[in-house]
Design goal:
alpha/beta, 14 strands, 2 domains, Rossmann fold, 7-stranded mixed beta sheet, binds ribose-5-phosphate
Length: about 300
Amino acid sequence: MDELKVFTGNAHPALAKAVAKYLKIPLGECEVFTFSNENIFVRILENVRQRDTFVIQPFCSPINNNLVELLIMLDALKRASAGRITAVVPYYGYGRTDKKDQPRVPITARLVADLLTVAGANRLLTVDLHAAQIQGFFNIPVDELTALKLFTRYFKEKKLKDLVVVATDIGITKRARDLAASLDASLAIMEKRRVGNIDKAETMNVIGEVEGKVALTVDDEIDTGGSLISVASALEKRGVKEIYACCTHPIFSGSAVSRLASSPIKEVVVTDTVPLNGEKKLDKITVLPIAPLLGEAIHRIHTGLSIGAMFE
Ligand code: R5P
């Protein structure tokens, strides 16, 4: 397995190219296309026998298509006798369906883990899962990277005074605490409630001191923007001076971008684990590239170096 090969499906080729550039290797050659009957077809166009192979494919829109594309690519690599296959899923969609918290609902995050493994993945490399426990849905090694270091470096350079890091819900508290500690800031936690199964979130209470401070909210993803907007208005009511936001996965579905544009939030800092096309761009949205982090992790997995050391 001396030779490293990185492939991409159609989800986010720009990210895969940036990772290959970091690794100073060409992207692996393959064709991935859909027949007129909507069947996806994959052909690996180079020898992968006994090679250390990685497939980069976030579960972004169209999520179901991108998921199936990845499964078929894994199957093709397995049947081509690849030495080891790592599914690189920078954004693990379906991660929010991770528990049976009402009667007769699925645990789709677990189902997807099973699908990836059955298709041929020997390892998973991912970034900021919705909940770290999803790692346990896999019986193969999982390396979960975090974008927190990127956010820390970015906001340290801004030298914001009177900073409070705000966890947008209880689930993100540990990451918010880590970010607050590395920025020398205080911590506040929002108590959020989802209304039914629709994309509607209500912020109930704020735990911690925020009045007169500069708030930096942190979340794993912004989907419709509903949670963030409701957090921002709760913070405004409690007298914060300015609001910044950071999140790893800018899903920005529906009218998220226009909601952010008209919100009191001064800047939204995200990464490019998912593609951000023209209509998802705004002056107040700053994108930090995730490719160096993924590239370094792939290099370390390939050469047997520690990944933990990247975050020490
Ligand atoms: C959910 O618990 C996540 O951490 C995010 O807060 C959520 O995905 C954001 O969704 P939306 O932007 O639609 O409120």
